[in-house]
C-alpha cells in the first residue's frame, strides 16, 4: 500500500502549501498594502447617510389634515468624528441658540455611541443659524446639515396633547425597538407613539465618499460604489383618526382658561370625536431643538398629560348613575321607593350632609337623580352594601383600562378586598354611603365616565373606544365580557337623565338646548373635606357634567371635567351644551354641503 | 505513525482546536451584533451546542454501525435533496432550503457527508484495493458523485456544487484512476457538455446559470464584493482595528458579513495576527484529521476520514481564496466561522465521524 502513503504525503504537502499561499496573501494585503487599504477605509471615509423618511400624515374623520410635515433644517454630526467635544460645543454655542452646557452633554453622549451613523444634535434651526453653520462649516468637525421634515400641527395646542410628539430615540428605545438606530426619530407620546410603527416609514440610505471636511468627493473607489447599495425612502403610512377637528377645537376653546378634560364620543360606534386636555402646550415648544426637559414640564401652562385618559378624579354625583342602576338591578329599590331628605343623614351618629342644606323633602329614585339628592343614595346604598355596589362599578368598567390606543390610567374601584390590600383596614359602612355619591376612594378618568354615559345612551353597550378610523362597519366593539346591560333599568335611567336637564328642578338645566334634546348628569366632586373652607382655587371642587344627545336616539356623548371648577351644574354643563350644539350645527352644515355638492 | 504533543492525543487536540475555532467564530458574530443584532450570535450558539451534542452522540456509536449504514446515510440525504424540488423554499434565486418551523435546513450541505460515506463504502468494502481503477470500476463512484451534484446544480447553487465535486473528486483521485480511464473521462466530459446543456437543463435554470456567470450586467459586480472584502482585510493591517470596530463591516460595505465574509471581518478587526491565527487553527484541524486518517488500519475508515479532511480543506480554500480576492465570489461558508446551521452541523458531524472511526 505504498502508493496510498505516497498520495497522503502529497495531500499533506498541498495543505501546507495552501496555508503558506494564504498567509502570504494576507501578508500582502494587510502588511505590504495595509497602509493603503487603511486609507481607503478610514481617511477617506465612506459614509452611510440616512435620508429621513417623512412620517405619515394624520387626518381627522372628515379628511382634514391635522398633522403633517414641513421642511426643516437639522444639524447632524458623525459621532466618530467628535474628537474635541469641548471645543465643538463652544463654537456651536456661539452660532446656535442652545446653551453650551447642554450641547457639551449631548456631544459627549453622542461620542459615546461610537456609531458609524450620523446623529441629529439640533432640529429645525432658524434661517440665521443655518447661514452661520454653513459659513463656519470648515471649523465644525463632523458636522453637516440635513433637510428634514418637521411635524406641523395646524390646530396647535387644541390637539397637541392628543396627537403627541416625536423625538430622537434614546439608548433605551434603541435597545427596545429592533428597527431603530441611534439618532432616528420616533413617536414618543400620544397618537404619534400609538401608531409609530406605521407612521415611521423607512429611512433611505445613501453611501457617499467624503473628504476630511465632509465634502463629497469623487474618487476611484467611490466610483466603484454601486447605486444598488443605497436604499430608497419609503414614506410613513397616513393615519385617519375618528376625531373631528372642528369639534376638537370647539371643545378646547370651550374650556377657556380652565384646567380640565373633555371627551366626546359617537355612542353608536365608540369612535372618539374629540378628546381635549387642558393645559396643553404649543407644539413648537417641543419639536424645536432638544426634547423637553423636566424644567418646562413644571410650568403651569404646560402639560404633556392627557387628562382625558391619564387624569384620575373622584366622579362625584355622576357615579349616581351606576348606584341607581345597581339599586334597581339588585332590587334594593324600585322607582317608587321613597326617602325623606332633611338635608343630612346620620350613620352611627355621624352626620352626612346632602349638598342641599335645607333638604329635598320626599324623594323617589327619579327625583333623586334629577335633583341629585345625596341622602337618598346614602340611605339606600347602606341597604345595598359595598358588596352589592362594587360589581356594578366593574360592569361599567370603572377602574379598568378602556383599551384605547393611548396611555391611560385605571383609577380605583374600591371594594372591601381593595381596601384590605391597599390600606390594610376594614371597610366602614360610612364609606359605602360616600362611594354611592362618587366620593372617597373611587377615582375615574373622564374617558371612563364617558363610556359609562355612552352605555346608557346606546341602550346598554360598554364600547371599546376607538381613535383610529377603520373600514369596519359601525358595530361597536364591546369591552370586557360584553353583555348588554338590562334594558328596563337603562330606559329608566334615560328618563331620569333627560329629567336632570329638562325638569324645572333638574341640576343640569344649563345644558338645556333649543337645537336638540339633551340628557345628562352633573357632578361636583369634593377635593378636600367639606369642613375645610377655603377660597383658594386648588381646593375648590371638580366640576363634572356627562351627557348625550339627542335624548330619544342618541348620537353623541360629551363628558366635561373642569378641575377645581366649582359646581358641575354651573361650570361644566354649559360647556357640554356648547359642544353638543356645535356637533349638530356641523352635522347640518356638512349635510347641506353634501346635498349642494350632489346637486 | 503516532503524533502526540503535550501528552495530548490527536483526537483531544482535534476537539480542542474545533472548540477554539467555534469560540472565535462566535466572538466574531458578537462583534458585529451592533449592526446585525444578537440574533445570528444566539442562533449560532445554539447550533454550536447542538453540534457538540452531535459529536458526543456519534462518538458513542460503534464504528461498525457507522460503516454498515454508510450507504443509508447517502440515500437519506439524497432523498432530502430530491424533496427540495417539491417542498423547498426559494431564497435569492436558489431553491436550497427547507423551512421547518423557525429552522432552515440546507440538505446540500449534509449530502457532502453522504457522498464521503458512500465513496468510502465503495472503495473500502465493494472493490478490492489496488493502485488504479479502470473505467468500469469507476462507473459507480462517479455516478454516486454526479447524481447529487446535478441536483444541486439544478437548484441552482453553483458554489455548493463545486465544493461537492471537489470533495468527491479528491477521494476518487486518492484511490487512483488508470491512465486510460482518465483519458475516457476527459473525452466524455467534453462531448457531453453540449447535449446536457441543451437537453437536461431547463431554460429558466440556464437563465440563472447565465446570470450567475455573467457579471457584465453589473459592471462593478465582479469586483465590488471582492474589493470591499479586500479593503476590509487589508485595512486591518498588522493588529486590526479592534473588537467591533471594523468600519467596513459596520458600514455595511461588506456583503454577507456574517456568513461568507465572516473571515474578512475577523481580518479587519484582528489584523494579520488574528487572520493567520484562524488560518493556523483551521489548517491544523485538517492536518490532524489527515494524520488520523493515515494511521487507521481499516480501509473504510481511512477513506472516510480522508474525505472529511478534504471537505474541510476545500471549504477553507474556496472561502479564503474568495474573500482575499484570489478567485471570483462563489458562496461557500468557512466552517465554524461563518454563521449557518446546516454548514455548522455538517462540520460537527464530520468531526464526530472522525472521532468515532479512530477507535477502530
Number of strands of chain A: 18
Radius of gyration of chain A, in Å, reads 33 Å
Computed structural class of chain B: mainly alpha
- Specify the number of helices of chain A: 22
Number of strands of chain B: 3
Q: CATH homologous superfamily of the largest domain in chain A - what is it? A: DD-peptidase/beta-lactamase superfamily
Our count of domains of chain A comes out at: 2
Helix content of chain B: over 70%
Oligomeric organization of the protein chains:
heterodimer
Question: Strand order, biggest sheet of chain B?
Answer: 1-2-3
CATH class membership of the largest domain in chain A = Alpha Beta
As a percent range, the share of strand residues of chain B is under 5%
Largest sheet properties of chain B: 3 strands, antiparallel
Please give a handful of descriptors for the protein shown.
heterodimer; A: about 600 residues; alpha+beta; Penicillin-binding protein 2a (Domain 2); Beta-lactamase; 2 domains; five-stranded mixed beta sheet; five-stranded antiparallel beta sheet; 22 helices; about 40% helix; B: about 350 residues; mainly alpha; three-stranded antiparallel beta sheet; 3 strands; globular
Description of the structure:
The complex is a heterodimer of chains A (599) and B (360). In chain A, strand 13 (344-347) and strand 14 (350-353) form a beta hairpin. Chain A has 22 helices and 18 strands. Helix content of chain A is 39%, strand content 17%. In chain A, strands 2, 3, 4, 5 and 9 form a five-stranded mixed β-sheet that branches. Chain A has a five-stranded antiparallel β-sheet with strand order 11-10-18-17-16, sandwiched between helices. In chain A, strands 1-8 form a two-stranded antiparallel sheet. Chain A is of the alpha+beta class. Mean pLDDT of chain A is 84; it is low at 218-228 and 288-298. Chain A has two domains: 47-239, Alpha-Beta Complex (Penicillin-binding protein 2a (Domain 2)); 245-284 and 308-596, Beta-lactamase, CATH 3.40.710. The longest helix of chain A has 31 residues, at 2-32. In chain A, helix 3 (85-95) crosses helix 4 (100-113) and helix 16 (374-384) packs across helix 19 (429-436). Chain B has 360 residues and is mainly α. Chain B has two domains: 1-61 and 215-360, no CATH class; 69-210, no CATH class. Chain B has helices at residues 10-31, 33-36, 39-60, 63-68, 70-87, 107-126, 135-154, 158-175, 179-200, 203-213, 221-235, 247-250, 262-295, 299-323, 341-357, and strands at residues 89-91, 94-100, 103-105. Chain B has a three-stranded antiparallel β-sheet, covered by helices on one side. The longest helix of chain B is centred in the last third of the chain and has 34 residues, at 262-295. The radius of gyration of chain B is 21 Å and the shape is globular. The model of chain B is unreliable at 214-222 (pLDDT under 50).
Amino acid at each position: 500500500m505504498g502508493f496510498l502513503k505516497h498520495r497522503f504525503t502529497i495531500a499533506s504537502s498541498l495543505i501546507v502549501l495552501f496555508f503558506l499561499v494564504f498567509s502570504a496573501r494576507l501578508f500582502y494585503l494587510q502588511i505590504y498594502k495595509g497602509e493603503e487599504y487603511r486609507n481607503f477605509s478610514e481617511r477617506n471615509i465612506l459614509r452611510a447617510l440616512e435620508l429621513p423618511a417623512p412620517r405619515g400624515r394624520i387626518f381627522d374623520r372628515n379628511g382634514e389634515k391635522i398633522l403633517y410635515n414641513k421642511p426643516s433644517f437639522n444639524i447632524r454630526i458623525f459621532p466618530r468624528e467628535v474628537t474635541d467635544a469641548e471645543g465643538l460645543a463652544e463654537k456651536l454655542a456661539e452660532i446656535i441658540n442652545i446653551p453650551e452646557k447642554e450641547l457639551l452633554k449631548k456631544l459627549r453622549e453622542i461620542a459615546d455611541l461610537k456609531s458609524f451613523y450620523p446623529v441629529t444634535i439640533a432640529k429645525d434651526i432658524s434661517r440665521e443659524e443655518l447661514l452661520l453653520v454653513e459659513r463656519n462649516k470648515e471649523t465644525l468637525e463632523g458636522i453637516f446639515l440635513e433637510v428634514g421634515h418637521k411635524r406641523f400641527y395646524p390646530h396647535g395646542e387644541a390637539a397637541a396633547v392628543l396627537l403627541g410628539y416625536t423625538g430622537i430615540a434614546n439608548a433605551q428605545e434603541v435597545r427596545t425597538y429592533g428597527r431603530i438606530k441611534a439618532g432616528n426619530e420616533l413617536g414618543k407620546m400620544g397618537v404619534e407613539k400609538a401608531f409609530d410603527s406605521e407612521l415611521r416609514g423607512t429611512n433611505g440610505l445613501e453611501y457617499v465618499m467624503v473628504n476630511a471636511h465632509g465634502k463629497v468627493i469623487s474618487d476611484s473607489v467611490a466610483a466603484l460604489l454601486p447605486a444598488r447599495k443605497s436604499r430608497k425612502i419609503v414614506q410613513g403610512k397616513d393615519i385617519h383618526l375618528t376625531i373631528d377637528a372642528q369639534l376638537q377645537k370647539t371643545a378646547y376653546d370651550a374650556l377657556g382658561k380652565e384646567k380640565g378634560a373633555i371627551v366626546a364620543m359617537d355612542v353608536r360606534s365608540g369612535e372618539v370625536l374629540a378628546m381635549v386636555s387642558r393645559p396643553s402646550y404649543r407644539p413648537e415648544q417641543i419639536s424645536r431643538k432638544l426634547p423637553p426637559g423636566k424644567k418646562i414640564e413644571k410650568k403651569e401652562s404646560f402639560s404633556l398629560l392627557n387628562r382625558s385618559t391619564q387624569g384620575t378624579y373622584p366622579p362625584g354625583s355622576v357615579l349616581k348613575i351606576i348606584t341607581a342602576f345597581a339599586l334597581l338591578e339588585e332590587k334594593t329599590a324600585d322607582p317608587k321607593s321613597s326617602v325623606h331628605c332633611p338635608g343630612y343623614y346620620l350613620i352611627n351618629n355621624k352626620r352626612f350632609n346632602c349638598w342641599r342644606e335645607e333638604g329635598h323633602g320626599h324623594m323617589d329614585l327619579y327625583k333623586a337623580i334629577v335633583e341629585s339628592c345625596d341622602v337618598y343614595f346614602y340611605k339606600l346604598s347602606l341597604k345595598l352594601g359595598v358588596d352589592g355596589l362594587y360589581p356594578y362599578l366593574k360592569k361599567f368598567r370603572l377602574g379598568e383600562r378602556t383599551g384605547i390606543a393611548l396611555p391611560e390610567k385605571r383609577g380605583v374601584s374600591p371594594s372591601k378586598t381593595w381596601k384590605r390590600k391597599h390600606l390594610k383596614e376594614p371597610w366602614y359602612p360610612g364609606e359605602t354611603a360616600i362611594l354611592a355619591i362618587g366620593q372617597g376612594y373611587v377615582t375615574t378618568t373622564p374617558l371612563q365616565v364617558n363610556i359609562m354615559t355612552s352605555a346608557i345612551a346606546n341602550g346598554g353597550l360598554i364600547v371599546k373606544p376607538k381613535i383610529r378610523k377603520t373600514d369596519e362597519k359601525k358595530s361597536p366593539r364591546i369591552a370586557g365580557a360584553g353583555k348588554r346591560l338590562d334594558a328596563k333599568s337603562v330606559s329608566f335611567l334615560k328618563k331620569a337623565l333627560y329629567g336632570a336637564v329638562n325638569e324645572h328642578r333638574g341640576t343640569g338645566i344649563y345644558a338645556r338646548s333649543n337645537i336638540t334634546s339633551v340628557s345628562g348628569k352633573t357632578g361636583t366632586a369634593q377635593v378636600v373635606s367639606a369642613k375645610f373652607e377655603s377660597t383658594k382655587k386648588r381646593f375648590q371642587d371638580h366640576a363634572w357634567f356627562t351627557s348625550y344627545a339627542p335624548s330619544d336616539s342618541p348620537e353623541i356623548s360629551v363628558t366635561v371635567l373642569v378641575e377645581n371648577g366649582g359646581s358641575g351644574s354651573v361650570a361644566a354643563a354649559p360647556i357640554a351644551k356648547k359642544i353638543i350644539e356645535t356637533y349638530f350645527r356641523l352635522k347640518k352644515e356638512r349635510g347641506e354641503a353634501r346635498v349642494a355638492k350632489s346637486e | 505513525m503516532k503524533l502526540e504533543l503535550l501528552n495530548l492525543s490527536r483526537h483531544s487536540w482535534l476537539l480542542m482546536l474545533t472548540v477554539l475555532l467555534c469560540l472565535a467564530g462566535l466572538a466574531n458574530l458578537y462583534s458585529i451584533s451592533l449592526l446585525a443584532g444578537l440574533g445570528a450570535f444566539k442562533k449560532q450558539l445554539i447550533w454550536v451546542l447542538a453540534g457538540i451534542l452531535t459529536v458526543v452522540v456519534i462518538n458513542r456509536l460503534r464504528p461498525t454501525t457507522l460503516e454498515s449504514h454508510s450507504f443509508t446515510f447517502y440515500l437519506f440525504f439524497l432523498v432530502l435533496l430530491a424533496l427540495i424540488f417539491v417542498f423547498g423554499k426559494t431564497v435569492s434565486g436558489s431553491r436550497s432550503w427547507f423551512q421547518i418551523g423557525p429552522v432552515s435546513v440546507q440538505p446540500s450541505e449534509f449530502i457532502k457527508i453522504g457522498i464521503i460515506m458512500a465513496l468510502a463504502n465503495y472503495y473500502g468494502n465493494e472493490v478490492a484495493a489496488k493502485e488504479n481503477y479502470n473505467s468500469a470500476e469507476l462507473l459507480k463512484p462517479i455516478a454516486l458523485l454526479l447524481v447529487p451534484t446535478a441536483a444541486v446544480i439544478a437548484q441552482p447553487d453553483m458554489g455548493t456544487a463545486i465544493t461537492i465535486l471537489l470533495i468527491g473528486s479528491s477521494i476518487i483521485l486518492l484511490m487512483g484512476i488508470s491512465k486510460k480511464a482518465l483519458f475516457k473521462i476527459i473525452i466524455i466530459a467534453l462531448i457531453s457538455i453540449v447535449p446536457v446543456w441543451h437537453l437536461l437543463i431547463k431554460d429558466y435554470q440556464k437563465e440563472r446559470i447565465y446570470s450567475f456567470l455573467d457579471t457584465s450586467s453589473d459592471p462593478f459586480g465582479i469586483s465590488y464584493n471582492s474589493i470591499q472584502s479586500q479593503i476590509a482585510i487589508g485595512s486591518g493591517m498588522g493588529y486590526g482595528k479592534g473588537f467591533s470596530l471594523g468600519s467596513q463591516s459596520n458600514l455595511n460595505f461588506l456583503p454577507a458579513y456574517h456568513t461568507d465574509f465572516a473571515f474578512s471581518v475577523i481580518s479587519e478587526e484582528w489584523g494579520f495576527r488574528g487572520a493567520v491565527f484562524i488560518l493556523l487553527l483551521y489548517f491544523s484541524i485538517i492536518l490532524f484529521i489527515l494524520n488520523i486518517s493515515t494511521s487507521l488500519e481499516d480501509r473504510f475508515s481511512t477513506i472516510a476520514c480522508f474525505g472529511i479532511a478534504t471537505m474541510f480543506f476545500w471549504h477553507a480554500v474556496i472561502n479564503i481564496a474568495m474573500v482575499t480576492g484570489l478567485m471570483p465570489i462563489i458562496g461557500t461558508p468557512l466552517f465554524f466561522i461563518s454563521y449557518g446551521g446546516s454548514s455548522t452541523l455538517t462540520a460537527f458531524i464530520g468531526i464526530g465521524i472522525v472521532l468515532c472511526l479512530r477507535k477502530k
